[in-house]
Amino acid sequence: MVITSINPATLEKNGEVQETPLEALAGIFKAARDAQRLWREIPTAKRARIVVAANESLADRMEELCLLISRETGKPPLEALSSEVYGAMDSTFYYYNIAEKVLDHKEDIDLGFYNSLDKTSFLIYKPVGVVSIIGPYNYPFAIPFSQIVQSIMAGNAVVFKPSSDVVLVGKEIQAVFDAIPSLPRGLVQTVYGSGSVIGDAMVGAGNRVIFTGSTETGKAIMRKASETLTPVCLELGGKSEMIVLPDANLHRAALAARWGCFTNSGQVCSSVKRLYLHESIAGPFVAELVELTRQLKQGNPLEGNVDVGAMINEFQMNKVLKAIEGAKSEGAEVLCGGRRNPSFKGYFVEPTILGNCTNGMGCVQREIFGPVLPVITFKSEDEAIEMANDNQFGLTSSIWTEDHEKGVRLGKRLETGTVMVNEVVYTFALAQTPWGGPKHSGIGRTHGKLGFMEVVDPFHVHVDKYKEPDGWWMPYDASFVELMENFKIIAKSLIVRD
Questions:
Q1: Which residue segment(s) compose the domain that 146 sits in?
Q2: pLDDT by residue (tens digit) across 66-104?
Q3: In angstroms, what CA-CA distances link 24 with 30, 32, 144?
Q4: pTM metric for this prediction
Q5: Are 160 and 254 in a shared domain?
Q6: Same domain for 451 and 401
Q7: Distance in Å from the first CA to the final CA of the chain
Q8: Which residues are catalytic?
Q9: Do residues 205 and 301 both lie within one domain?
Q10: Which of 64, 218, 374, 438 has its CB 3.0 to 4.6 Å from that of 234, i.e. a possible disulfide?
Q11: Residue 350 · residue 339 · CB < 8 Å
């Protein structure tokens, strides 16, 4: 069978790839394990130097890759450059620079009393083996690419499955790694097919699973992984709140809300999906935001000067339109947008702002993976924090205020993995910072040092230089009784008193 790629903006065919037969997976994972056994023996610094060569290929094919990403996702090519290709190159370069420091770090463990008996322990990190990476459709290049880079720099092999909506981008990712001459064949392999068939089989076949996508699919992967006790790293949904206080730079905040909600047609796990405005500034802020939103140009991103492109497919478009109708039935007011754009053939939803929203509405509580922004007002900072935390997701959040210390103080009260003061969304592009969140937003972290920690196992080494038998070994005779009396004395010294 073939998987066909469709341009969501024009509905034209981009191309197709052959679906990977399920029965081929066993051989694919065997080849990955064979390659990994050789690859893990190469020193970390040399591995990182081999992998960073991927940036040469990306630099040579930058324009070509951006156009392909645009054709498969419906986002503008310049957005594909800034948020995908450049981000992939920047993260690869950063991981190259820190790989040896992080992965070869030897952490000595203080054993306290046992140090006096010539016993020492230390902690090192070992590659896990084969990492199964299941990629998303919204950022089909940057997200899996950086995950592959960290995995193989750490000494692992990778089997990667792109979303079926973006198989051609997945094919190009494979081509980038195939072009690195010193990379063992079989170390990085790409497979194609549905998540319910190929993806499901990948979960049990790997030593780690990294998945980016919906919360519902993440739960299914976790259930499957429990059968083999395979550790998972899940980057799932979000309902990121933007809280604007009266002392904020309101014009900049309005521009940020527009970009933060409507970039990539709102198909961003960390996009601004709830806008909380203090009641004293809500009126003029919303008026400016609506006017700014109406100025956005929507259309075929390949035609140039387009701000907002298409959604990924008809199914997702209809889900968003249904959510808008549901919000209206609950009493929300459409301030702009609110419909499928009738000017285009593809899957376009107009940038939409919903007013008259309350915190309990479905449009506020449930993730709408599209260009829709509900607005809620608050009277006090405590009320804003309480409403923001009253949600099942916890990926990112932002506080807008000119009092930066207050922004950090309030941000610490938010139940999210990241809080930004006077910024939205973009910290995903910072390879140095961890990415992920609590609640239904996932498990584990990608990026930075913590991203490396997801694809290695901590390995404890204990070295005993003691020449005599340990005192607690058998036989339990009179000398052992005497030793235990000394232990009782030592135990009493371990009490902490005020």
A1: 2-236+447-457
A2: 999 999 999 999 999 999 999 999 999 999 999 999 999
A3: 10, 13, 22
A4: 0.96
A5: no
A6: no
A7: 72
A8: 235, 269
A9: no
A10: 218
A11: yes
